[in-house]
Here is the input.
Amino acid sequence: MKPLTPGLLSRIESVVWGSPAAAQSSLRMRGVRVARTVLILVRDLVDGQLTLRAMSLVYTTLLSIVPLLALSFSVLKAFGVHNQIQPMLLRFLEPLGDKGVEVSQNITEFIQRMNVGVLGAVGLALLLYTAISLMQKIEESLNFIWHIRRPRRLADRFSRYLSVLLVGPILVFAALGITATVMSIETVRGLLEIGVLGQAMKTLSGLTPYLLVIAAFTFVYVFIPNARVRFIPALIGGIAGGVAWQTAGWGFAVFVASSNQYAAIYSSLAILILFMIWLYLSWLILLFGASVAFYVQHPEYLYVSGGEPRLSNRMRERLALSAMSLVAGRFLAGERMPSLLDFTRLLGMPIHVLQTVLEALERRQLLLQSTDDPPLYLLARDPSRISVMQVLDTVRVAGEERFFSPEHLPAPPPVDEILERMRQGLESSVGGLTVRDLAAPAAERVVDASLTAAAPDAGG
Here is the structure.
């Protein structure tokens, strides 16, 4: 087999990462997008950020698993289904084999010994905080994947976390109970005796573990991140994560059954080591599925270079003027003002790149955010009172801090002279233009369209 030549590698790179041609078929463009997504996912795994987040979640899980399950146990005990916690743990720890049974028994004993009633106010508060800290760490990890820098408000986070911790277990066991009740009905049992239906139900029962994990992953991807995650991308991420989790569980079970060295090396700590490894794989797979959902919803992040792109000065100026033109055009046309997702869709730029420019415009009070959900971007004042030079100066000085500004960077007189001449040239070129001039073509098109529509009525 011949190795790939540099020319072939260059051609493959050109096909995958080159600018898409307008004449390409939709099938080929989808294939290129899938290839980019796979390569980006591999790059993210190799980069190490997902693995670091997974390790952090393992540490938090070890601290909070008993308080977390104790809360669920207290809630489920009121409904008389608390005895189902150990079977659920056994199902999660099934890849550990016999050691999974021992771990689940130990955790269950810890939970049963924990008496919430004698903890007191301080102890109960610490119990809630330890359990909620895991949810907070999960949200931070998913927000990192979704490039969200602003967390939810404290009250919103608290209500969501308690919903997952208290209501989630009830819904899970209610769904399982309804399924068991339906399967026990004589009419349903009679239908299952029919060959085709029986075989279909047998196949469905074999797929049930996959479906439950996919549903759980999809719920996490939609509910936890501080972003509007569409259902289809979340479902695709849930399918990728669910299939990977079930497959990893099968492989890990084979690994545990075929290796006895861990017991010889680590002795009684072998159970803890294997438990931590399985927790790490589980969290890594959950974060991997979240990355799949993110790239499906935001294909603009599929670029070849690693890390977050840094805008050049020319790109900042172009993006700031385009954003102001878009906002002013909608303002003059009486249309709905854009949100951050509208900017992403219309300008084709990643969210964090847009946020860098939009936050700079907000700091200079050229744009404002509304109280809507999601927030809309509004002009801070009339577009005819916002000069183009103000917009350009805003992005030029963005990032300058108290100790990192031109005043603290000594430069020779010729350099200062050249920079001043450049500023004067730019001032003479665009000094008389305003943001209204940027939006004038769009506004004129709206006026022309309204005049055309009104012309027949006037003639009639």
The CA atoms of residues 1 and 357 lie 50 Å apart. The longest strand covers residues 367-369. The radius of gyration is 29 Å.
